[in-house]
Amino acid sequence: MIRIRNNWRAGAVIALSLAMIGLTGCAAQSAGVTAGAGSESSNATAAAKWPEVLRLGVLPGEEEGKLSRGNKKFVEDLGVAIGIKTELFVGDDYTAVIEAMRTKKIDFASFGPFAYIIAAERSGAVPFAVKATSKEAAFYYSQIVVPASSPVQKLEDLKGKTFLFADPASTSGHLFPRMILIKSLGLTNDKVESYFGNVSFSGGHDKSILAIAKKTADGAGVCDTCVKRVVDAGLVKASDYRVLAQSDPIPTSPMTYRKDLPADLIEKVKAFMFEYHKTNPDYFDGGKQAYYPVEDKDYQIIRDTAKALNMSPEELLKR
């Protein structure tokens, strides 16, 4: 397994449009396994040469225990189906994975919705699949959580406390929880940090929920499905935290490919992934889920929000 590091980090990310959030509402050693990559793009040429090694980018939170075993099994099975070698790359954060795709260190990766918008702009990422119970159910939620035993009972009680966002480029771990705070507390974006005693980025949803479980943070913004994966992996218990607020539905994180990959490779991987729930139901929550097709237009709501801020994704992430 190769860990990708990136020395440019996202900093101040401005908030999302208030209308989008409801108060009801997250390089060096490689472990080679076999595989190929996938979906369709007008920019991919069938005549293009297949890579000798196809690389999948993931985040550190996806490489813990049961989560890691699931990733390894996926790329092993993909390799059997496609017939080329695959390596699993672990990025430090979303921006590291985006940069790895831009520099062609990886060929496909799963991104959060906002991170995908940035990856499409910077790295030529093309979305093609989401994991869900159905295409119509391909949504998730951002939540603000606190330790279960915390005296904090409402968002106002977090004033002066320690608060964690997940990653600057995270939709559900930064942008949406930020706007929950703005809307519910009547803050302006530039006052969010000063509302708390300390605000920092944990580096991932898993790190945020672990900090909440260990009571080393008073509050955190996370995604509900990310937390569920950490709970299912046995790293925390559902009884370790409480949910204070939840966002409106957010489009699910897409699996993406680099747009210059060969079209025939894309089609083969696409065919494999859309049938994978039949051969390995354990990868899909015991057969309750599957991969469904997705397109760039499905994420227009995220792009429109950034545009409404009069700032590009690049500007939102620069420090």
Automatic annotation (TrEMBL):
Keywords: Signal. The keyword DNA damage does not apply. It holds the Pfam family Phosphonate-bd. One of its GO terms (biological process) is transmembrane transport. One of its GO terms (cellular component) is ATP-binding cassette (ABC) transporter complex. The keyword Signal applies. Residues 1-27 form the signal peptide. Transmembrane segments: none annotated. Belongs to the phosphate/phosphite/phosphonate binding protein family. NCBIfam families: 3A0109s03R. This is Phosphate/phosphite/phosphonate ABC transporter substrate-binding protein. The lineage of its organism: Bacteria, Bacillati, Bacillota, Bacilli, Bacillales.
